[in-house]
Amino acid sequence: MNSSDNPFRQLPSLDALLLQMGDEIARWGRDSVTQTLRDLLSGWRGDIAQGAALTLTNEKIAAELHQRLQASRSPSLRPLLNLTGTVLHTNLGRAALPDEALAAVTCVARGASNLEFDLQAGRRGERDAHVESLICQLTGAEAATVVNNNAAAVLLVLNTLAMGREVPVSRGELVEIGGSFRIPEVMARSGCTLVEIGATNRTHLKDYRGAIGDNTALLLKVHTSNYRIAGFTAAVEEPELAALAIEHGLPFMIDLGSGNLVDFSALGLPDEPTVSHALASGASVVTFSGDKLLGGPQAGIIAGSRELIERIRSNPLKRALRLDKMTLAALAEVLTLYLQPETLCERLPTLRDLTREPAAIHAQATRLLPQVQAHLGADFAVEVAECRSQIGSGSLPLDTLPSAALHITAAVDTSDIGDLAVALRAGSLPVIGRMHKNALWLDLRCLEAQHEAPLLEQFAALSR
Ligand SMILES: *Cc1c(COP(=O)(O)O)cnc(C)c1O
């Protein structure tokens, strides 16, 4: 009986294959090559059992092996092009870091550093020292400390200052921030008791006053960055709350969420309270994110009075929530850019994207359109369309920015816009747009010049 009688005989044995795969074994490791070959052989056995006619050569087997191993080794976390129009997209990694920050990360990650070492004194130093004076300089705070994100900052402050005690909060501020951060739940986990006061739309100073008792730990105001209550509303302004807190000898905490360090209205952007304004209004401690409007790495920043920051820093939970050296290096570089506000909008990607001129985005879309259309052929129609970008990350949800998009629709019955969106996500550099009214919108606000060629390459790859 020859192999044409028994089609399974054309499959080489695993041992025979392994003997020929010396290069692959050196590159990927013996275990991975063995397992992948086993999987391939079993797949081919199945194909043959179904009656498939295979023509396997050693080259084909090696190519298939290579492709499988390459795919299995490619990192799960990878870059993509965010053309959703949401600049600070939580699911897409929020702020893009400036080159200076990336260089600093590589630099400290490569070897030893003075992370917790005082070079002058020659002894143990303080991790926060690398960013504390920058934060103080930029916000007017007396002292500052940093943790893993703003959720951790809120948890740590409340746990330090309010564990086992009460914290009155306006019912209009009991927000949920995308995903699973809810103010009431974080308060419970921090060990303090939430005392709800006022109504969803209206809370008055007398509500706070009425809630203050012997067991009150502090007054808390949460900046409701991701939604707004309109109509018949009332909230107590920061200076009044600060005065009430002083009257009762209590700390006054503001969770700013997306605290920013520069005046947004001066940049032509929707107004958002700054950290210095919150502190100047009488907050004794303010918490905010590193990777929202600040445009830095994921971090939570706590700025405030020296006495409170010292207590927060010595909470054992601080150790569990502390920043690592790479994040600290990136944060320090981003904060340093803020010392030179006149170049900030050029050098900090988040602000660069947020302040792009709509006319420039429109011109970019017009310029790219013919090439995108050429790659897509007659199946899809591409136009330039006006659209609105969002800032994102729960920041300023109602204020959108005028922008321009490549607007793609199916041009013939046999093409499907959903399939195109899937194909663009499956590419080597996934392209993420927004589906709306049977069209794929690629908002070009975040498409920087160096991303144009990679974007076109993704369209070119579709037709290959
Ligand atoms: C975003 C936000 C948080 C959580 O900040 P992360 O940095 O995402 O952990 C907490 N409070 C408010 C008010 C926020 O807007």
How would you describe what is shown here?
This protein has a 5-stranded mixed beta sheet with strand order 2-14-15-18-17. α2 packs across α3, α6 (about 130-140) runs parallel beside α14 and α17 (about 360-375) runs parallel beside α19. The chain has about 475 residues and is of the alpha/beta class. The protein has helices spanning about 15-20, 20-30, 30-50, 60-75, 100-110, 130-140, 150-160, 185-190, 205-210, 240-245, 275-280, 305-315, 315-320, 325-340, 340-345, 350-355, 360-375, 415-425, 450-460; strands at about 80, 85-90, 115-120, 125, 145, 165-170, 175, 180, 195, 220, 250-255, 285-290, 300-305, 380-390, 395-410, 430, 435, 440-445. It contains 19 helices and 18 strands. The two termini are about 40 Å apart. β3 (about 115-120) and β4 (about 125) form a beta hairpin. The model has no long low-confidence stretch (mean pLDDT about 95). Bound molecules: pyridoxal-5'-phosphate. Pyridoxal-5'-phosphate (PLP) binds near residues 154, 223 and 289.
